[in-house]
Write a structure and sequence with these properties.
Layout: E1 4-13, E2 16-17, H1 19-27, E3 34-35, E4 48-49, H2 54-58, H3 68-83, H4 88-92, E5 95-100, H5 105-118, H6 134-144, E6 150-153, H7 159-172, E7 178-185, H8 189-197, E8 221-229, H9 230-235, E9 242-251, H10 264-277, E10 284-288, H11 295-309, E11 315-317, H12 320-323, H13 330-344, E12 346-347, E13 370-371, E14 376-383, E15 387-395
Parallel strand pairs: 5-6, 5-7, 10-11, 10-14
Antiparallel strand pairs: 1-2, 1-8, 1-9, 3-4, 7-8, 9-15, 12-13, 14-15
Helix pairs in contact: 3-6, 7-13, 10-11
Length: about 400
């Protein structure tokens, strides 16, 4: 089987621009969930989120025609491509897969809001050119000269993780020798209002796996990695951060928003990923959990983890406790966190975790990062509609 390595990483997160900034933030256990400045929050119970600092976004791209989401996606993908030292010839044969949901909805909302309030035609109508999620792949592919297949993956909050799995499939099937894969999402009114309406947001920073958890916190980010045939990467002298071993993808179709009550699809996704990776559950030393902080999700995920790994046999943490739930970007943000944890032999903590739920039989690395010489790790992403993706990585 073709071995696949990660040769480049790029992140724009609530900490700012760059993988180094992102890793320093999560390694320190810094919670980036703060009062929202991007949209109006008056009248809502929750008024916080993990935003990418606005001055950072403004400084990313001089083009006013690009949406906020396009800007952060392009910056993260550009960093990943540069980090992998890809030449123009490399980029010309690279596939691009982008997990996305919101697209340029933030700008579309601003256009509609202005016209509805004033009754006049808004000049913001130009923003509608980038409203669809497919705009990210078009922008990134064009600007970076990526000449292979381009796909937009829409699988709710599992989108970013699915882009990694499907990009790896293209490499293993011989369609392309390398792929730029990732996810992007930014805060929008419709998303913020929707999660508030579902009563899934905590008014304080989220506390995954805590006994007193009350919901999730939203976040925004873009994250990309370069996947490449291992022999090709070594032959050209490219960097290697780790090895992608395999993925498992399932769909529950149990409920529009609620997880399967006993985590059937989650369990199958993790087992499929382990089978694809060719490693037993006993070799997994760390799981970057989906860990949203909602009472139901955390309970079901803990149950599923127990079924796969046994109680207490693996370290578990949720980086959403620091950067929020970055929606379509979450799967790639957390995959990169997992790869960096392996590289640095340091497990990112679950911030804000002060009293572990008695029903969670795992060490969830509360508040402070934990040194641990882990060789193989798993990253979980579970989206609305029961869309489950699990990814397995090995230390490089």
């Amino acid at each position: 089987m073709t071995r696949i390595v990660i040769s480049g990483l790029g992140v724009v997160s609530p900490y700012g621009v760059g993988v180094k900034t992102f890793w320093e933030g999560i390694a320190a256990g810094t919670c980036a969930i703060r009062p929202i400045t991007l949209i109006e929050t008056e009248g809502f119970r929750c008024r916080i989120a993990a935003e990418v600092p606005d001055p950072v976004v403004v400084g990313l791209d001089a083009s006013r025609r690009r949406s906020r989401a396009d800007r952060v996606a392009l910056a993260a993908a550009r960093e990943a491509v540069a980090d992998a030292h890809l030449t123009a010839q490399d980029r010309a044969v690279a596939a691009l897969l982008v997990g996305a949901v919101g697209g340029g909805m933030l700008e579309g909302e601003a256009w509609y809001w202005e016209e509805a309030r004033t009754g006049r035609r808004s000049p913001r109508i130009k923003a509608l050119r980038s409203i669809l999620p497919s705009s990210h792949a078009e922008t990134v592919g064009h600007c970076l000269g990526l000449g292979g297949p381009k796909e937009t993956i829409i699988m709710a909050c599992a989108s970013g993780a699915a882009s990694i799995a499907l990009g790896a499939d293209l490499i293993r099937e011989g369609v392309v020798p390398l792929a730029v894969v990732g996810g992007v999402d930014v805060l929008t009114r419709i998303c913020f209002m929707g999660f508030n309406a579902l009563k899934l947001l905590d008014s304080e920073p989220c506390r995954p796996f805590d006994r007193d958890r009350r919901g999730m916190s939203l976040g925004e980010a873009a994250a990309f990695m370069v996947l490449e045939e291992a022999e090709r990467c070594r032959a050209r002298g490219g960097p290697i951060y780790g090895e992608y071993l395999g993925a498992g993808m399932t769909t529950d179709a149990h409920h529009v928003t609620a997880p399967h009550p006993v985590g059937d699809g989650m369990i199958r996704a993790m087992n499929l990923a382990l089978d694809a990776a060719g490693v037993p559950a006993s070799e997994i030393g760390y799981v970057n959990a989906h860990g949203t902080g909602t009472p139901q999700n955390d309970r079901v995920e803990a149950l599923a983890l127990s079924c796969v790994f046994g109680e207490g046999s693996v370290l578990v943490s949720s980086t959403k406790s620091m950067v929020g739930h970055t929606m379509a970007a979450a799967g790639t943000v957390e995959a990169i966190a997992t790869v960096l944890a392996l590289q640095h032999s340091l497990i990112p903590p679950t911030a804000n975790l002060r009293s572990l739920d008695p029903g969670v039989p795992f060490d969830c690395v509360p508040e402070v990062a934990r040194p641990a010489p882990v060789e193989v790790a798993l990253s979980n992403s579970f989206g609305f509609g029961g869309q489950n993706v699990s990814l397995v990585f090995r230390k490089g």
